[in-house]
Design brief:
The protein is about 60% helix and about 5% strand. The protein is α/β, with parallel strands linked by helices and about 700 residues long. One of its GO terms (molecular function) is glycosyltransferase activity.
């Protein structure tokens, strides 16, 4: 049997290798064939020195470049860290402790919680370095005093602390799932409305062309327009100007400027603006209360008590920063025709500064969902929703039937909507009619606004709970108002959001026997955030900041909810949301460029001199500006340390999703606590117009 080719080649290769190893002769030709000699050309000694010098120079340049990059990076990191420390130190020095009772109580509780968390973290770090996390000691086998203490802690934690924490966790998870289902149902209802193209249809339509001669005045009902305001010199011009240019017969419309300003210069400016429009033939009156009781509700109530109000059928209400389109009344009033049970037509808000900064972008996500989904779905399917306080038209008879404006809460708009619904009146929401307005650009203004919006509903719920039960509406409407409108969306949402993500989640890191599933921490909130962003698709890149910021705002909403529910004094405080008047400036510039401001009026320059003088004063006041200092929010900072400490503990247990969530959520609390979100700058000047700008407007 012949040998295979592989064996023959192996024998030949072994023979050649042995011959080369022994250095034997007789194989010169084979060696010449198998051996390859590579020779390096000779190098001159002077060339060697030159090559060596050039190599050293290149290496030195490389090392210098690396050193320069390292130094610049170190300087940047150090300067950034020092800037952060200086900012924090300055804000700590200028900060005032929480003034309201509820905020102070919540801050003290969170401080105590922080101390407990830090002590637990130190204890767990010591146990980790001792190796007790891997082999937990028992009370019987423990030797050292610290080891005995840790063994006792493990038994107490597992037997007495973890079970109630797990029960609370389960309750919050159930509430979280119920609220998520409610949110999903609302989104599906919105999709159904879009798919079927459902929207309110008016019984009549007014011609699109501007109102002029040859019209029948009887076709245009008497409309009262009210603009309540208080010390809002940055925005009063835009609202008065927009309302005075509404396309409606002048004989059938009266505008009330309800000025509650306490600053004399602001009163003078608003009076001058009213006089300017009076000279142009607009029926507009100025009202100022000497005794400011009841805030906005008291202002509106006093205006409705005027003798001439009985001649009007409808009232349109706009806040000081709102700019209704010229055809606003033509698109809203016709819906009342033939519907005697209709009390309110609410329109949508549109925001002129939604892209101003990250804070306004995140607010736009929330409010877009509120109007596009919540208001629209409730308006279509149950004809009830909360009045937004502005950009709406009321039937005056409905206001009188439900008792008019009351001063008992800081959410007078929701109060009157609830009472009107209990009296059997219906509401309509128009998603395609939009009123321009302004979002608060600073975190301080936004925080105060949210505090009022979440404490007021709880005040109202306490006051009207028995009225809801005694009302003559159907059981389904009572259940919807109590369980969905108040409890689920106004009480449960801030409760579980704060408790689950700011209290329970950190505690489960130190009590591993109580488990908070990853899908509760990450997946379900992510899906809900996607649903919230659907009405504002351009905001999808901000989905992660939105999720983190909403959890951060939960501490403010939770404190406000507790304050309103238990009648703390701060729940009755009304703070006017600060506006910057950006939209009014843009409008004036646009008017100046197009010349429409001059062309649309027939008055002479002499009659406008007073208005020009007052506008010059306003420009000077804006130009001077006010010192705006960023604040330090102690409650948010304390919660940041709690979450960051919990993230360190989760790192010891190698809990990936929990660690990253706690880390980024803690950093978000740091950013918000240092007031690094929203309008920035230690001194922020309000934008104003120069004399050149004024001459451009009026030349």
């Amino acid at each position: 049997m012949s040998r295979s080719q592989n064996e023959e080649f192996q024998q030949w290769w072994n023979k050649q290798r042995n011959r080369d190893h022994d250095g034997g002769g007789g194989g010169g030709d084979d060696e010449a064939f198998l051996t390859v000699e590579i020779r390096t050309p000779a190098v001159d000694p002077t060339d060697k020195d030159r090559i060596r010098t050039r190599t050293l120079r290149q290496l030195s340049r490389l090392y210098l470049l690396r050193l320069k990059q390292l130094a610049s990076s170190s300087v940047w990191i150090a300067s950034s860290f020092l800037h952060l420390l200086r900012t924090a130190n300055r804000r700590i020095a200028n900060d005032n402790p929480p003034s309201s009772t509820s905020s102070a109580r919540l801050y003290r509780l969170i401080k105590a919680f922080l101390v407990v968390v830090v002590l637990l973290l130190c204890f767990e770090l010591a146990a980790y370095f001792k190796g007790w996390h891997f082999t937990p000691p028992s009370v019987a086998s423990a030797e050292a005093a610290v080891e005995v203490a840790y063994a006792w802690w493990l038994e107490i934690r597992a037997s007495y602390l973890a079970p109630p924490l797990q029960s609370l966790t389960n309750v919050c998870i159930v509430l979280f799932l119920i609220q998520s289902v409610d949110r999903l149902v609302l989104v599906l209802g919105c999709f159904w409305i879009k798919l079927r193209r459902i929207k309110p249809v008016a019984a009549m339509e007014y011609p699109a062309k501007p109102v002029g001669e040859g019209i029948r005045l009887e076709d245009y009902p008497m409309v009262l327009v009210q603009i309540p305001m208080c010390n809002e010199k940055e925005v009063y011009q835009q609202s008065i100007g927009a309302v005075c240019m509404l396309d409606w017969p002048k004989e059938r419309m009266l505008i009330q400027i309800l000025d509650d300003s306490s600053e004399l210069d602001v009163q003078v400016l608003i009076k001058a603006e009213v006089q300017k429009w009076q000279q142009r033939g607009v029926r507009i009156v100025y009202r100022h209360r000497l005794i400011r009781t009841g805030y906005k509700a008291g202002n509106l109530k006093a205006a409705m008590n005027c003798e001439y109000v009985k001649d009007y059928e409808f009232v349109a209400i706009f806040d000081a920063d709102f700019q209704p389109p010229a055809e606003f009344l033509k698109k809203t009033v016709p819906h009342f025709k033939g519907r005697d049970d209709l009390a309110l037509v609410q329109t949508r808000w549109a925001f002129v500064n939604k892209d101003e900064n990250l804070l306004t972008r995140l607010q736009n996500i929330n409010l877009s969902f509120h109007f596009e989904v919540e208001q629209q779905v409730n308006g279509v399917f149950i004809n009830f929703f909360g009045f937004n306080g502005t950009a709406g038209v009321w039937r005056i008879k409905a206001l009188e039937d439900c008792g008019g404006w009351l001063e008992r809460t800081t959410v007078e708009d929701m109060d009157i909507a609830v009472r009107a619904h209990l009296c059997g009146w219906k509401f309509i929401y128009l998603n395609d009619v939009k009123c321009l307005c302004e979002l608060p650009e600073s975190y301080e203004a936004y925080k105060k606004q949210q505090y009022r919006w979440h404490s007021g509903p709880m005040q109202l719920f306490r006051l009207c709970f028995m009225d809801i039960l005694r009302s003559k509406v159907s059981v389904g409407k009572k259940a919807n108002m109590i369980f969905l409108f108040f409890l689920l969306r106004k009480l449960i949402l801030p409760f579980y959001s704060f408790t689950l993500f700011c209290v329970i989640l950190p505690l489960t890191m130190f009590f591993p026997e109580a488990n908070l599933p990853s899908w509760v921490v990450c997946y379900i909130p992510g899906i809900m955030s996607i649903l919230n962003i659907i009405p504002a698709p351009r905001s999808f890149p901000f989905i992660v900041p939105y999720l983190l910021f909403e959890n951060t705002m939960s501490v403010t909403k939770f404190g406000a909810m507790i304050s309103g529910l238990f009648k703390f004094g701060s729940s009755y405080e009304w703070v006017v949301t600060k506006k910057l008047g950006r939209s009014s400036e843009a409008d004036l510039i646009a008017y100046a460029e197009s010349g429409s401001l001059v062309e649309s009026t027939n008055i002479q320059r002499s009659s406008s001199d007073s208005g020009l003088t007052e506008l010059s004063k306003l420009g000077a006041a804006k130009k001077a500006g006010k010192t705006k200092r960023n604040r330090l929010y102690r409650t948010e900072i304390a919660l940041a340390f709690i979450l960051l400490a919990a993230s360190v503990r989760s790192l010891l247990s190698a809990q990936g999703i929990h660690f990253y969530f706690l880390l980024f959520q803690g950093l978000t609390f740091v950013i918000v606590g240092l007031d690094l979100i929203g309008e920035q700058g230690e001194v922020a000047e309000k934008k104003g117009f120069d004399d050149d700008d004024l001459s451009l407007l009026w030349s």
